[in-house]
Amino acid sequence: MQREYGAEQPYTPLGIFKVRLPFIHFRWEWPEALQALLLCATCLGAIPVLTEYLGVSFEVALTMVIINGLLYMLHFLLGDPVVPGWITPAIPLIMAFLTRYEIGPERTLALIALQLLVAVVFLFFGSTGLASKLVKLIPDSIKAGVILGAGISAIINVMEKRFDSAPIIITVGTIIAFFVLFSAGFKELSKRVGILRQIAKYGMLPSIVFALIFGPLVGELPVPQIEWGIASLHLRELLKGYSIFGLGFPPLRLFIDALPLLVAVYIIAFGDFVLAETVVKAANKERGDEAIEFNANRSNLISGIRNLILAVISPYTQLAGPLWAAVTVSIAERYKAGREGMDSIWGGIGTFRIMTFVGVALMPIVSLVRPALSVALALTLVVQGFACAYIAMAMLKDNQQRGVAGFMAVILALRGAAWGLLVGVILYFCCEWKSKESKISAEKTARAT
Predict the structure, then answer these.
(1) What is the pLDDT at residue 25?
(2) Least confident of 146-155, 282-291, 415-424, 429-438
């Protein structure tokens, strides 16, 4: 289907959703297809967390990753113009929460309870449109404290549990990842050097490729044993041992235990909705030939559907988030270059998510990256820790906010979401809170100055 200049890409309406199918509503994009086959290694990084914290076998964990990969496609199919991903900054908080329970049925039920609550919240705010109003009520210092606490938790997790197993690869891989993702000097060089500009599009992938090549050479990783064929699904084992169908419904106390973490998770996820809208608006400004609509309510609903399905049949430690920011930005940047390179943004995001699903189901790719999955997770966590730090710092305007956020973040990282949120609220009222009259007076003084 062809679109008129300046119109939306054709779709089939379905209530709030806009259904788009590959080869019918958008064309295939080979650059995104090839990139996806490489970056599916990041998706497979969920496996070591699932095996470590839920006690599942590698085969069951791979089945869970494949199911999650299938659900990723709901976003482009139903009209959400982003590449979805995990709620990555929340992963260390979820790990800490799960360690409160004995590994086995109780821990799995605790994760199911959390993911069901996340699904309900996404669905509620998506259907009512109250998401933005809720988050506006939360002070910046508490929001920053949650994000910074997640970053600190990520670094603690790596240093305590993962670093000693591969110190050389994790250290050098972190340097490579930071240089490609965060270095101001690299960004300047990439504007002038074509090959560096291409490397920049792949985000964390160069550091993972380094681990795969040099890990065996320095003796920190085994040599990959390539397997052929398509991954077999262990659905019976998954449903019997790790789902509501096999374990039953979580008891009420687990839902109560998960409530503080639920608040932290949604605060983190809401930042992804804001970022997604920003990326789409920027793409719209560059291309007058296509109108792209981002609807936060739709994105909430789709994320809620994914979390609900996973909670019932395949509880996922990473949860189902609304955005994989690095890849969404990468596709948007190529889209901005013009219609000759990418006819529609739906072609880019649709092709990418289809091929990541294909990639995690192909045993040659899975077996190639399997030795480096733990290192890939460590690299993901340290990058997340760095990103959480600068995002949180940018949200804070004065010393009171910085103090509240910093103190709260440490408590949250060391004692969990419930203690962190409680301390954050107490510190806010002790150190930051002002009456309405004081705020109005301060605003008038600022304007006069």
Answers:
(1) 93
(2) 429-438
Tokens of 406: 């910093």
Kindly state the tokens that stand for 350: 């649709």
pLDDT level of residue 441 (50, 70, 90 thresholds):
low
Question: How far is the C-alpha of 440 from the C-alpha of 446, rounded, in Å?
Answer: 10
Is the dihedral angle over the CA atoms 238, 240, 241, 244 positive or is it negative? positive
Q: Is the pLDDT of residue 378 over 70?
A: yes
Share of the chain above pLDDT 90, in %: 45
Find the angle CA(347)-CA(366)-CA(44) to the nearest 5 degrees. 70
SS (H, E, C) the chain: CCCCCCECCCCEEECCEEECCECCCECCCHHHHHHHHHHHHHHHCHHHHHHHHHCCCHHHHHHHHHHHHHHHCHHHHHCCCCCCECCHHHHHHHHHHHCCCCCCHHHHHHHHHHHHHHHHHHHHHHHHCCHHHHHHHCCHHHHHHHHHHHHHHHHHHHHHHCHHHCHHHHHHHHHHHHHHHHCHHHHHHHHHCHHHHHHHCCCCHHHHHHHHHHHHHCCCCCCCCCCCCECCCCHHHHHHHHCHHHHCCCCHHHHHHHHHHHHHHHHHHHHHHHHHHHHHHHHHHHCCCECCCCCHHHHHHHHHHHHHHHHHHCCCCCCCECCCHHHHHHHHHHHHCCCCCCCCHHHHHHHHHHHHHHHHHEHHHHHHHHHHHHHHHHHHHHHHHHHHHHHHHHCCCCHHHHHHHHHHHHHHHHHCHHHHHHHHHHHHHHHHCCCHHHHHHHHHHHHHC
Q: What is the mean pLDDT of residues 266-289?
A: 82
pLDDT of the residue at 402: 92
Question: Taking a C-beta distance cutoff of 8 angstroms, is the pair 387, 151 a contact?
Answer: yes
pLDDT at 65 over 70: yes
Partner residues linked to 7 by β-bridges = 290
| Residue at 176: amino acid letter | I
CA separation for the pair 32, 185 (Å, rounded): 26
Half-sphere exposure of 180 (CA within 13 A, CB side): 23
Q: What is the pLDDT of residue 63?
A: 97
